Amino acid sequence: MLVVQKFGGTSVADVERIRTVAGRIARTRAAGHEVVVVVSAMAGETNRLLALAKATARTPDERESDALVATGEQVTAALTALALHDAGIPARSFLGHQVRIETDSAHGRARIVRVDVERLRAALAGGAVAVVAGFQGVDEQGSITTLGRGGSDTSAVALAAALDAEVCEIYTDVQGVYTSDPRIVPQARKLERITYDEMLELASLGAKVLQIRSVEFAKRYRVPVHVRSSFSEAEGTWVVEEDPAMEEVSVAGVAYDRDEAKLTVLRVPDRPGLAARVFGPIARANIVVDMIIQNASAEGTTDLTFTVPRGDYDKAKGLLEATAREIGAQGIAGQLDVAKVSIVGVGMRTHAGIAARMFEVLSNEGINIQMISTSEIKISVVIDAKYTELAVRALHDAFIPPTPNPPTPAPGKRP
Ligand code: ASP
Ligand code: MG
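Predict the joint structure of the above. Result:
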């Protein structure tokens, strides 16, 4: 059985921890598995390297920045192989281009287009552990690329898919995926399992356990992902395909995102094409719009409200002010300190009244809902940022049972 084990930055933060990681790999191997390891850079190293680039050049060239930041993973891959040797285990390190993880040329956010695992297979066949530098690849021109922050997760899942691994284990500094952020909700508990779709919603909602792209990959290639702690032997959370029992639970998690800001274009003339005029310049500036609300038209105009990442607020506002003048809208209103709070669960498809209950819970706390958006398995609201914690706690209390996933009734005993 082939296992891919990915170790995040805190798991390889120093030599002592790398030796601990080697011990775990050794045990996996002793249990009879073939092991491919993927490592992140030591905690803090990627930030340090990025800062070096910024200190050297006002606008660092993207190709050279990638060549620089990719070194973080080169160090940990080699050190992990060395630690394995020291424990008497044959091991070989591989950089992205040595494996050959081919990507497009979008430096800093490259996408994997092809993975060639022949050299890894050869290393495994020779009895070695293959240790791969995460986060990096190579493009058609032979330039080093990186996959975006947190990209080692995606390296690991892509390799697990290409190698048809039994499981992709993601070792991190938390016990798994939680029903909410334990720093805000002390009762938050570790989920035993979660579906790919729920994880995608939670990942994009600010629960930063896995890079979103890695979950998309896992879903597409049906790679079972096991998120677990490198500091304990306990089972973590399995990210898997949906099965009917998972719909028994209506809400799997409560997430929040404070990185949002709200903008309203006031009194947009109600004519075809004006929404396109409003969003065109925003899109061309590469600003990602999240929720959008258009009010019902009154007196021939509508208000158009939407959210953008907080860091893009000023830029978006400037663009909108220009557009508002051109199209004869009244002006722009905005709020920086808003938050998005969401509940997520595949069971929402089959449980009625979840939205009504959510709004009631918020109303009981006196929290005003400014915007609402829904998908099949998610309901999100935008609220004043100062109520984030209150909202998250109240929703967790209301929707998440204090005991782990209730036992699935035996098939014959269903009502
Ligand atoms: N070292 C990279 C980062 O800090 C990639 C990773 O850790 O997954 O974003
Ligand atoms: Mg990570």
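The domain at 255-399 is CATH 3.30.2130.10 (VC0802-like).
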